[in-house]
Amino acid sequence: MDNGKFNKWFNVFILGGMTTVMVATTAIQLIQGDSGAVMLLVAAFGSLMGVLSTVCSANAKILTFLFGFFDVTIYGVMCFMSHNYGNGALHLAYFLPMQFIGFWQWRRRGASSEEGIRVRRLSAKQRVLWGLVFLAGLAAVYFLLLHLGEDDAASVVKLAIFMDAFSTVCNIIGQLLMSTAYMEQWIFWIGVNIASVAMWTATIAGSSDSDYAFIYVVKYAFYLLNSLNGLRIWLRLSRDAEHT
């Protein structure tokens, strides 16, 4: 199977699989009446927008920012409602405006509704620099969230705070590298998706009124698969760009 055909069928799998699971999960939970209908429907809609955004991103399509606008807005609100304050603030204060900045940056690099973005790679020096930025940012955000959660120290597990901080810093760097069309963004997106699956799984385990969180576990599981494919695609695109 050639690369183009593989990408086509992989995208169908991600979009079809996510849609099927979201519809089935939402329908079951609505029938059971375990959670608010509006919350479930909004969470499902936001998740579908997010999957469309990540599929477009993996394939270097500028429409990623249109779908991403809806995804990050809904997800940010849901995070605050679930007391995941780091990710909530990140999505509403950073990701939301970055959708517009990213759209502008991609347009400058030749992206359109028909043409993909010209992809590039970080130099060895830049990779070391971003690695140091990641470690410093992780330490700073972790201790900040730990301080903000002092009143809940008896109920908040430090590992959960670490995962929130890890996801937050990976999101910040990943979005910046995505908006400037660097291949290395996908390393951080893979980290985000692993941390997010763990974080939302912990939310389900720790609360009896968080059935909608299952939607986000499924969402980030599909995101993880898509991010692995995105890394594969952008490795090829960046390699091709270096030889043109």
From TrEMBL:
Would I find Cell membrane among this entry's keywords? yes
Its record classes its membrane topology as:
Multi-pass membrane protein
- Please give the start and end residues of each transmembrane region: 12-31, 37-55, 62-83, 89-107, 128-149, 155-174, 186-207, 213-235
User: Quick one: signal sequence residues?
Assistant: none
Cellular component annotations (GO), alphabetically ordered: plasma membrane
- Where does the protein end up? Cell membrane
- Its main localization is membrane
Lineage top rank: taxon: Bacteria
Q: Does the keyword Transmembrane helix apply?
A: yes
Enumerate the GO terms in the molecular function aspect. nicotinamide riboside transmembrane transporter activity
Annotated Pfam families: NMN_transporter
Key words, A-Z: Cell membrane, Membrane, Transmembrane, Transmembrane helix, Transport
Q: Which family does it belong to?
A: Belongs to the nicotinamide ribonucleoside (NR) uptake permease (TC 4.B.1) family.
NCBIfam families membership: NMN_trans_PnuC
Q: What's this chain's function?
A: Required for nicotinamide riboside transport across the inner membrane.
Q: What is this protein called?
A: Nicotinamide riboside transporter PnuC
Q: Which organism is it from?
A: Candidatus Cryptobacteroides merdipullorum
